[in-house]
Design goal:
It is a single chain. This protein is mainly alpha-helical. It has 2 domains: 84 residues, no CATH class; 73 residues, Aspartate Aminotransferase, domain 2 (3-Layer(aba) Sandwich), CATH 3.40.640.10. It has 7 helices and 3 strands, in the order H-H-H-H-H-E-H-E-H-E. It has a 3-stranded parallel sheet, covered by helices on one side. Helix 5 packs parallel to helix 6. The longest helix has 14 residues. The two termini are 25 Å apart.
Length: 190
């Protein structure tokens, strides 16, 4: 959430998430093209890695409490990504956000975080081919079952797919695209 309540979306879009002091006083955020970062000490390096890999409750994270955000490797995070995520969260009024380099990175991260072997996924049809392949070919190898509904504007059609999925195992995800790729078919999200 924005720490500056009452600001217009336009103001948040161009200023939120960046403190010029963190960029050597640059009025606008510098672009960080580096892939690796340095540490003050071996202990700080250990703490930063422990915080990243073991989470916010780790001893390393506790030792880093109150310090500025630290980074390990550009693909794991960097100052520009942190700023973009903070701005998107402020613009949407969200607690936090996560940005990805591609739609499939976001899709696969979401699905791998939510489904477990034996779960069912209910999805609209048609939908993006990469996501279709992930759900029907990759996740099925892990024991995840997929159930489709063809008419996203029919509550009855959606309910049939949900009932079939629930009979097969826990429904962990309802995946839909609206408008669908590539046909622009609609799903009544409400």
């Amino acid at each position: 959430m924005s720490d500056k309540p009452g600001l217009h979306l336009e103001t948040l879009a161009i200023s939120h998430g960046y403190d010029p002091q963190s960029g050597q006083g640059a009025a606008k955020p510098p672009i960080y093209a580096t892939s690796t970062f340095v540490y003050r000490s071996a202990q700080q390096a250990k703490d930063i890695h422990e915080q990243f890999f073991d989470g916010p409750e780790s001893e390393g994270a506790k030792r880093l409490a109150g310090e500025p955000q630290a980074y390990i490797y550009g693909r794991l995070g960097h100052p520009n990504l942190t700023m973009v995520e903070a701005r998107l969260a402020a613009l949407d009024g969200a607690e936090d956000t996560a940005a990805f380099n591609s739609g499939m990175a976001a899709i696969s991260t979401t699905l791998f975080a939510l489904v477990r072997p034996g779960d069912s996924v209910v999805h609209s049809r048609p939908f993006y081919g990469g996501a279709d392949n992930l759900i029907h070919n990759v996740l099925s190898d892990f024991g995840v079952k997929a159930f489709a509904f063809l008419d996203g504007l029919s509550e009855a059609s959606i309910q049939v797919a949900l009932d079939e999925a629930a009979a097969s195992g826990p429904v962990s995800v309802i995946w839909l695209e609206s408008p669908a790729n590539p046909t622009a078919a609609l799903v009544d999200i409400a």
